[in-house]
Amino acid sequence: MKILWVLILLLGTIVCMAGEKGGRNRSFKPGELWPDNQGIHINAHGGGMLKVGKIWYWFGEHKVEGRNGNSAQVGVHCYSSRDLYNWKDEGIALKVVTDNPEHDITRGCILERPKVIYNRKTDKYVMWFHLEPKGKGYSGALSGIAVSDRVTGPYTYLKAVRPNAGFWPINVPEQRQDKNANSGEQVFNGGSLPENVGDLSLLKRDFTGGQMARDMTLFVDDDGKAYHIYASEENSTLQISELTEDYLDYSGKYARFFAGRFMEAPAMFKKDGKYYLIMSGCTGWAPNAARSAVADSIWGPWKELGNPCRGKDAEKTFYSQSTYVLQVGKDRFIYMGDRWTPENAIDGRYIWLPLEFEDGKPVLKWVDEWDLSWFNHRK
Ligand code: DGJ
Predict the structure, then answer these.
(1) Distance of CA 79 to the CA centre of its chain
(2) pLDDT, tens digit, for every residue of 281-303?
(3) 221-255: b or e for each residue (b if 16 or more CB lie within 10 Å)?
(4) What is the C-alpha to C-alpha distance for residues 138 and 214, in angstroms, rounded to an integer?
(5) Of 169, 201, 232, 309, whose CB neighbour count within 10 A is largest?
(6) Which atom of ligand 1 is nearest to the CA of 280?
(7) Measured from the CA of 110, which atom of ligand 1 is nearest?
């Protein structure tokens, strides 16, 4: 009987391997091509992770060849893995719309940094992403929301919204809550620090219509509350918004941080009760020095901890930009970043590195190749 089981298992393994053109990956090789189970470079940029049972799911932007790939031609790609090295293509979880040029997520829109979280109360998987309507550049600054009963999708697109229309952030004192004062129109170029950035003029400009939201992530806290963290106010200021219990909208409670610091690419994680953010500066697709910050409460105050990168190319975050920090065990975190290639978007690479801590600060060092046993051997 035992022999029969062994034979069945062996046969199963052989059949599985025959279907896998990519062979087995046994380590992370930051910056190299990363073959999926079909031997094709993983196509899930600006991505995020969700663990369901023992399986990890990776959601990210599906890019196509050339500059065209910088806008959404296909949708959000999903992969699954049991070991984080080998990823099975689960297909397109959210497809762009190809038969209606007026649709919010019509092909050619900008759909970036998708993240999926699971809502226990509704038993639904909820996807949020940065959405820019087709042909409008980055002026829309909307948040798209989609939902599914199954983790791999298909996800149903629900709506695109601007955060917290008609609400003041909890950290703007009542005496400053006058939307008509100092609310002159401004255009920011995304990099320089305007003199009057502290005067709330962008917050006030968008008070009625809703705040801008571009680069984003989601974070679910231990108590099940979920948050949307996004570059707002023409990218000048990061905002953190609480979501409703079903994760499908904003609760109206939000706060603004790092005013005038132009933080992009936020990735949040929690360690020993403290909240951490890894972020970048704001230089388009070009890499810049990462930033990090810590807080005792998600509502701040947030304290900047500087660039977590050390060594060669630290000032360029090893030619990457943060997208997610994945916790894989107690005190075990993986930094996940994108090495963008906007001239041929599909060729973008993934920079996954172990995230260490030194004196309470996150630290990133380049490693050519590593695996999860790295966490067992560190000092
Ligand atoms: C940097 C952002 O982090 C990316 O997600 C993307 O929006 C590019 N800017 C576009 O230039």
Answers:
(1) 15
(2) 999 999 999 999 999 999 999 99
(3) eeeebbbbbbbbbbbbbbbbbbbeeebbbbeebbb
(4) 8
(5) 232
(6) 3
(7) 7
Angle at CA 135, nearest 5°, toward 129 and 140?
45
- What pLDDT is attached to residue 15? 45
The arrangement of strands across the sheet holding 226-232 comes to 216-220, 226-232, 237-243, 250-257
Q: Could you tell me where the DSSP H helices lie in the chain? A: 2-19, 201-205, 374-377
The residue among 234, 236, 235, 230 whose CA lies nearest residue 218 is 230
List, in sequence order, every residue forming a beta bridge with 304; answer none if it has no partner: 293
Count of helix runs (H) and strand runs (E) in the chain: 3, 21
Structure confidence by residue, pLDDT tens digits, 164-209: 999 999 999 998 898 887 544 454 555 555 545 567 999 999 999 9
Closest by CA to 85, choosing from 266, 350, 376, is 350
Q: Is the CB of 215 under 6 A from ligand 1?
A: yes
Q: What is the pLDDT of residues 244-261, one digit of tens each?
A: 999 999 999 999 999 999
Name the residue among 54, 46, 44 with its Cα closest to residue 89: 44
Q: Is the CB of 191 under 6 A from ligand 1?
A: no
Position 14 pLDDT exceeds 60: no
Please give the model's pTM, rounded to 2 decimal places.
Answer: 0.92
Q: How far apart are CA 372 and CA 26, in angstroms?
A: 10
For residue 199, what pLDDT is reported?
76
Q: What's the 68 CA to ligand 1 centre distance in angstroms? A: 14
For residue 45, the number of C-alpha atoms closer than 13 Å in the C-beta half-sphere is 31
Q: What pLDDT shows up at residue 9?
A: 52
Pair 255, 245: CB distance under 8 Å: no
Q: Is 15 helix (H, G, I), strand (E, B) or coil?
A: helix
Q: Which residue has its alpha carbon closest to ligand 1 atom 1?
A: 284
pLDDT digits (tens, 9 = 90+) for 22-59: 579 999 999 999 999 999 999 999 999 999 999 999 99
